[in-house]
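Researcher: Going back to the complex we discussed earlier. I've cleaned up the inputs and rechecked each line, so this should be the final set. Can you rerun the prediction on the complete assembly and write out the structure?
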Amino acid sequence: MNKTVDEMSFSFAEENYIKAIFHLSNWGEISVSTNSIADQLNTKPASVSDMIKKLANKGVINYRKYQGVEITSKGKSLALQVIRKHRLWEVFLVEKLRFKWDEVHEIAEQLEHVKSPRLTDKLDEFLGYPKVDPHGDPIPNKNGEVKVGPKLGLSQMEEGSQGTVVQVDDSNPAFLKYLDKIGIYIGARIKVNERVEFDGSLELIIDNNQKQFVSSEAANNILVAKE
Amino acid sequence: MNKTVDEMSFSFAEENYIKAIFHLSNWGEISVSTNSIADQLNTKPASVSDMIKKLANKGVINYRKYQGVEITSKGKSLALQVIRKHRLWEVFLVEKLRFKWDEVHEIAEQLEHVKSPRLTDKLDEFLGYPKVDPHGDPIPNKNGEVKVGPKLGLSQMEEGSQGTVVQVDDSNPAFLKYLDKIGIYIGARIKVNERVEFDGSLELIIDNNQKQFVSSEAANNILVAKE
DNA sequence: AAATATTTTTAGGTGAACCTAAAAAGAAGT
DNA sequence: ACTTCTTTTTAGGTTCACCTAAAAATATTT
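Model: Rerun complete. Updated structure for the full complex:
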């Protein structure tokens, strides 16, 4: 008698809350505080308290007053569906409509809420079942399963080691534009030439020909697969 | 100081009202009653009265109490933008994602509200600047301009005359499925073989080989270009 | 022209998703 | 342990888009 997530209906706001909780909880691993949700969604804690009760009633989170929230398996499944749609639309926007990778997030935020399972699956098929979005984030399949290969932050790489860029932080368009400018893209081959002791910044060699300094902060947001 | 329509923001509900008013007014030709809007949108007249005031304040309709509403040029421009998006998405769904023509309306109703002028224009480009949607409805261009060729309802055709199907009513999925079944599609060549006096139904010859009877009601919803 | 019927508006209310301000619970510092 | 600070919840309010019921304006009939 307990309905599955795709037999239920969720508002845009509800979907955005679940997405935020899913991310803040590290894909469901840790519990999430009211304040952190309010922060993430640019709302006030009082609004979050309201919404949390609704989501708990719908069975997508567990909630005990003052104890933070945990996402349920139902909630995970909903979050993964929305994330799947978001990332598929991003692929569409970049590969088919020729948007740049720093332009697609905002539009995908709207498209991810379009309700039609058949649309999602047909879009997936049209795009050739992509495994990652334009920033290298993995795309959950129809059943919400995600395969994530081994990867580590550029800042964790040892001096002299090499890797291929597999993912970059997608939350800041300015950062993505900066990556464009210095020639970093998904698939770029990067060698960590030198680590500057003083501030942790790195000297990179990109695609075996271009020397480039990046801050440790930037390096943290570039993930590579080691060779 | 008066803002143009694309400098303003409209809710889904507001956009749906303007679309309804635009259609009911025959593209702005006649004024529209409160009841007819309520009818079209499955709401109550009282709700329409509320919304009408808001839309009048935004300058997309003219409104004097008890006198019905007229759409302004600003309103037309908004309606045409939404219709443009709706029809472009329908083309995408049918041509790229291989949906059937009776499946796309509902999904396009959601997609038409996605806000991003660049998205619309890039989609248009991706689709090759289509002139009509899968049901033959003309697609307004970027500036809201629509070219409509001469066409008439099948039921207006004389016995023995021929034409090409250029448009069909898209509001009823069952009707579209019926057209599929009897072999009528955009571009089909149709000869009106005989008109039955008694009920106005027609005997057609479709693509020079298939005889088919259709009711006058169905014939009214099939538009052809005469040879 | 008056009476009746229809249409439209107003008045007041609901739920969703937000808000501020105040109260309550929990965590931290001494 | 007790005071202080922080976090969270509650209480009560707002706007949006809807609703019902009643009142007002317009249309139609006789």
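Model: Worth noting: The mean pLDDT of chain A is 97.
Researcher: Good, that matches what I expected from the previous run.
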